[in-house]
Amino acid sequence: MPLDLILRRARLTEHREPLLDIGIADGRIAEIAADIASDAPHAQIDGRLIIPGFVETHIHLDKSCILERCRNEKGTLEEAIAAVANAKRAFTEADIYARAQRTLEKAIVQGTTRMRTHVEVDPRVGLKGFNAVRHLARDYAWALDLQICAFPQEGLTNDPGTEELLIEACEQGADLIGGCPYTDTDPMTHIARIFEIARRFDLDIDFHLDFDIDPSWMHLDEVCRQTEAHRWGGRVAVGHVTKLSAVDHTRLAEIGRRLADAGVAVTVLPATDLFLMGRAHQHHVPRGVAPVHRLLGHGVTCSLATNNVLNPFTPYGDCSLMRMANLYANIAQVGAPADLAACFDMVTTLPARLINAADYGIAVGRPADLVVLDSRDPAMAVAELAQPLFGMKRGRRSFSRPAATLHRPS
Ligand SMILES: [Zn+2]
């Protein structure tokens, strides 16, 4: 098959040397070799890193960009949930679409090629968020694969009508189902019902979980137990688990082995966790971010993700996963090159595994999802916040952001 494009002298994260050419045909990677003999059009990568794109496992497109409508004066989780619960009564599909689009486009130009978004479903907002984001997923399939996780942010058993709406979302094609037991008056039944619905529709599960810094109890135990009981290992993820920031290394290692045995993956949301946790402290404020790089050695699949953008949960956000990796490394006091490289893995290969993206990776036959970073080394990319220069999805250029130019006096 004739090649459509060759990316010349690219550096892959897993094979740094020699530099390789990547030949693309019909939207897929057709050839990888040290020097592809072809007169097809080419782009010089000049030894820069090339990756299959960043993978965002946890973001809320539907409630992004609402800071001008609601605030979080005390900065607590409870106030954030209440503020958004009130604001979302006025959401319309067009409004959700416009805000989600703004956030999604930021993620695309930051080099994200795959994303899992949570979407709130309950009697106040109905399926407006689900419908708007589903529409968005179709409209932006040229740039990004978007998984939709329908979930009950304000609880399930305590919120009549929510379960029916969740089931309706599953019937209409939600990619997976989420849970939020910490807002439910009956968290154990909440967890059990989510597993039952997941089994009925054969869906992966992604829980918001253990979102405080009191280590005396955890819902994680029940999620691991149910994952094993339903043989759902490899299909369950939990986000936040900030309680893990409050346990010692011995207990953390025990939990790591438990998670690995059960097949439960973990996503850390550094920006949100750092913003909302420890608000009872006026000084020496705990960081409240789970040190998940310490779980990798036990075989736990861990990712770092964005979560909220410009809303009461997190009044920041550029949707850069490179920035999230750097922020995490800084908070977790990660400095050794191997650990910095692990932070890079937690925004690329590991989240791809978490969302069960079987065709992620740079290999012949895989989709030509390729992002060029202005860096030559994954650890240094995290340290220096390497910028993505351009990217493509299924062989078609999806964004470019040229490197900065210095204008020296002549
Ligand atoms: Zn979340």
**Bound small molecules, which ones?**
zinc ion
> Structural class given helices, strands, pairing?
alpha/beta
> Total strand count, please?
16
Coarse shape: globular
Overall mean confidence score, pLDDT: 97
Low-pLDDT residue intervals, each spanning 5 or more residues = none
Radius of gyration: 21 Å
Sequence of secondary-structure elements: EEEEEEHHEHEHEHEHEHEHEHHHEHEE
Strand fraction: 15-25%
Characterize the biggest β-sheet: 8 strands, mixed
Spatial separation of the terminal alpha carbons: 48 Å
Per DSSP, the total helix count is 12
Provide the helix percentage.
25-40%
Tell me what you see in this structure:
- There is one protein chain.
- The chain is of the alpha/beta class and 410 residues long.
- It is 31% helix and 21% strand.
- Strands 1, 2, 3, 4, 5, 14, 15 and 16 form an 8-stranded mixed beta sheet that branches. An 8-stranded parallel beta sheet has the order 6-7-8-9-10-11-12-13.
- α2 packs across α3 (128-139) and α10 (337-345) packs across α12 (378-384).
- The longest helix is centred in the first third of the chain and has 17 residues, at 93-109.
- The model has no long low-confidence stretch (mean pLDDT 97).
- The structure holds zinc ion.
- Residues 58, 60, 118, 208, 239, 307 line the site of zinc ion.
